């Protein structure tokens, strides 16, 4: 009997909430620099049988940013701390392909995969923010150059993950041999950007290979995703556009010899729940009322990849605004919506302040479940990356009020079927390609 | 009433034991790739009121190495996992100043310090093994060049740790202001090797600055330590030499305007305990009997920083062997002992196999406590970095049999007096130098 198709769910973790002013909600967590806050989020995610929790990262900061961007931890370090206090939920973190070394990144995620018993996921990003360069004493490579580097970077990391075959650690007490050297090989990579000999000093991961996430939506970003990703995060504001984007990515996979089911596409969505539609909208308005426009301006300029702080707040967003070199996903989806709906800069600030450009769905639990079901069944996605406006309350509401509806409708698992993230995603454990 | 001078104790953590064949001891832990093994070691360390646990690191591997060098985790990731399941013990890990970026290292240890409530320590090493270069597509800088880079690297990391003043996160619900921008400054470092703007995206650490460990013993290594370290690991084989080295380091601190008490010098020692002296020696012989000479050769060549595999095992170690560019500490201490005691290569293999060149003390708990007391009181050190031959047994023996003797003699704390590593070390919390 074939399994019915079911959703995958992730949660985008920012301690002070995904809404820029989420920390101002009564009872909301006040800090992303607090392990206990994130441990509680992880517990709620496991109660909701989530596939994964996700921690993003940026390589520069500004005190005017979203509070959880301005003051936070290095995400792999944070996830490793969570590995010890969780049992099932996948642990995804961002690491840049532009400002790291593949040997280091491969080691970190291999270590995290072991520490968590097979739950590590790497969000490979090219780092769109050019201010990162100032912290690394370098020139920020251009958009397409960053993706050329990223293509090779991902291959090197995956190659390093393949350097140990299963069963290499033999621990033979009779002979004193601890490792079978025939099961450990160098990678001997010599490419355009990287020379990496290998092997890693870490044996093969529980998952074989940790999961690879990706979130780019430019042409080279889609190619990288279609070729290498297991999970793709998208930015959506419109069902038709989401369906088209989904279809485009899935059909692109064939170019790389892959089956469409090998990638789960998860758009970001901020659910705002109320016992009536009006109450949900009221909640969203109250949240929006907390937004400090000064902050929203800094953040919107960074979301759009260009300084827009000189525009009058109540002018229409001009239709000839250029698409920047940096982040096609957010800028594209937000600007398309602004033009479609003839938004002012203030409207766009509100949109960006709410969920940084992601889709916001306000309604009753039934309405939200209906919408998610519609998107899922009409092949706009394979599930969702949930962006609770604040923690833990808004996340608990989703897990306690919407998840049970999805379960009752057969759209979502009632329990984990395995312990590894691969199990949740329904992906087989890959064999090493070096043996 | 002035506190009497008391020892500081660290434990060098290698899952399969510090002895190269420690895993072959009955009941010994079998893997360094096992969080539960290291969690148990950390529990024992806290029972023994240890200052810190320490995880080393190397940036290349070889299946013939010490099993816990060949197959292990990236140490910061591992420590972060331990942060969640420990409460007092300091968490020290190695990160290279030659193959990392200061912005990344500063973030990792700042994050670890927050996650652990003020228990992070960074062992800043220059990476002596030239094979690291092959994994990073680079030339391995020469010894003295590595230290020039390290001097600047450590300053940048410490500068980044100073970018946030205490109290910068205000979370003002009335105004919506989350951060006071006057309390966050860039570093604006422009040096010979690094250009780093800052600030970090992480607020000031619980310890103000994480602790800095160092373990170099060359001339430039001692300068770096005298100027910047809080704790120094040494390699010793002889009381007189240890006293001279201790005195030399402490007096060198004055050049940098520091007081001798601002550094704790901890030589590595492997205690092997028995209910009689003969039983302890018997245990050590049994351990040495487990050594596979093939492994010892690979490891000894790496310890001495030169290929010595062509020498006949039973020839004397030649007195004209050059001191390598790589690791003065181990090579120097081991070769001095070999020449002093007219050792053959086989003897030296045994020495290196036992504790990688560190000092081995076999005896009853009283004898071991006497020796440690003598070294401590005669100013050869400020405490010890304990290298149990295997885990958990040999470490439990030390904690249960030797630590109580040291406590009874007033040489060692009976309980922690604070929660942070700085508290254990008796070091004040530094103010930011940027404010
Ligand atoms: C859900 C989601 C999470 C993201 N997380 C990060 C992140 O943590 N760090 C980052 O630099 N970029 C992040 N991005 C940005 C993208 O990964 C990508 O780098 C950016 O959109 C530019 O790529 P593109 O031009 O191909 O769209 C994220 C995007 C999405 C949709
Ligand atoms: C207890 C101890 C631990 C050490 N741990 C590491 C380590 O984890 N990684 C490393 O590359 N070097 C390590 N070293 C080596 C030294 O930090 C140093 O790099 C080496 O001795 C070369 O420096 P020198 O020439 O100044 O002696 C360690 C040394 C000692 C004594």
TrEMBL record, chains A, B:
<feature type="domain" description="Luciferase-like">
    <location>
        <begin position="25"/>
        <end position="378"/>
    </location>
</feature>
<keyword id="KW-0503">Monooxygenase</keyword>
<dbReference type="GO" id="GO:0016491">
    <property type="term" value="F:oxidoreductase activity"/>
</dbReference>
<dbReference type="InterPro" id="IPR016215">
    <property type="entry name" value="NTA_MOA"/>
</dbReference>
<dbReference type="InterPro" id="IPR051260">
    <property type="entry name" value="Diverse_substr_monoxygenases"/>
</dbReference>
<dbReference type="Pfam" id="PF00296">
    <property type="entry name" value="Bac_luciferase"/>
</dbReference>
<keyword id="KW-0560">Oxidoreductase</keyword>
<protein>
    <submittedName>
        <fullName>LLM class flavin-dependent oxidoreductase</fullName>
        <ecNumber>1.-.-.-</ecNumber>
    </submittedName>
</protein>
<comment type="similarity">
    <text>Belongs to the NtaA/SnaA/DszA monooxygenase family.</text>
</comment>
<keyword id="KW-0285">Flavoprotein</keyword>
<dbReference type="InterPro" id="IPR036661">
    <property type="entry name" value="Luciferase-like_sf"/>
</dbReference>
<keyword id="KW-0288">FMN</keyword>
<dbReference type="InterPro" id="IPR011251">
    <property type="entry name" value="Luciferase-like_dom"/>
</dbReference>
């Amino acid at each position: 009997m074939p399994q019915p198709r079911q959703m995958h769910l992730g949660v985008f973790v920012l301690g002070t909430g995904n809404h820029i002013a989420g920390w101002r909600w009564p009872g909301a967590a006040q800090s992303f620099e607090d392990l206990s806050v994130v441990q509680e989020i992880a517990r709620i995610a496991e109660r909701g049988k989530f596939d994964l929790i996700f921690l993003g990262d940026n390589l520069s900061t500004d005190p005017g940013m979203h509070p959880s961007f301005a003051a936070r931890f290095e995400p792999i370090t944070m996830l490793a701390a969570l590995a010890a206090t969780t049992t099932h939920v996948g642990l995804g973190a961002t690491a840049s392909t532009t400002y790291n070394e593949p040997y280091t990144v491969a080691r970190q995620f291999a270590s995290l995969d072991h520490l968590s018993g097979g739950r590590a996921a790497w969000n490979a990003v090219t780092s769109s923010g050019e201010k990162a360069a100032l912290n690394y004493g370098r020139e920020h490579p251009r958009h397409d150059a960053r993706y050329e580097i990223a293509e090779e970077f991902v291959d090197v990391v995956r190659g390093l993950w393949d350097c140990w075959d299963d069963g290499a650690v033999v621990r033979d007490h009779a002979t004193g041999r601890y490792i079978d050297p025939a099961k450990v090989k160098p990678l001997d990579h010599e490419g355009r950007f990287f020379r990496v000999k290998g092997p890693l000093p870490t044996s093969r991961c529980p998952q074989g290979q940790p999961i690879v996430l990706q979130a780019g939506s430019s042409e080279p970003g889609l190619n990288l995703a279609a070729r290498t990703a297991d999970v793709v995060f998208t930015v959506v504001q419109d069902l038709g556009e989401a369906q088209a984007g989904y279809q485009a990515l899935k059909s692109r996979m064939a170019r790389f010899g892959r089956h469409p089911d090998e990638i789960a596409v998860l758009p970001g969505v901020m659910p705002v729940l109320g016992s009536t539609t009006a109450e949900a909208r009221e909640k969203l308005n109250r949240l929006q009322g907390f937004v400090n426009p000064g902050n929203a301006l800094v953040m919107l300029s960074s979301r759009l990849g260009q300084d827009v702080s000189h525009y009058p707040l109540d002018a229409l967003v001009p239709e000839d605004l250029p698409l920047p070199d940096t982040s096609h996903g957010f800028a594209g989806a937000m600007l398309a919506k602004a033009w479609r709906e003839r938004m002012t800069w203030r409207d766009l600030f509100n949109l960006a302040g709410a969920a940084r450009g992601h889709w916001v769905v306000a309604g009753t639990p039934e309405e939200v479940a209906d919408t998610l079901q519609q998107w899922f069944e009409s092949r706009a996605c394979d599930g969702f990356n949930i962006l609770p406006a604040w923690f833990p309350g808004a996340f608990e509401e989703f897990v306690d009020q919407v998840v049970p509806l999805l379960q009752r409708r057969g759209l979502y698992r009632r329990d984990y079927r395995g312990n590894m993230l691969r199990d949740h995603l329904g992906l087989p454990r890959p064999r090493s390609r070096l043996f």
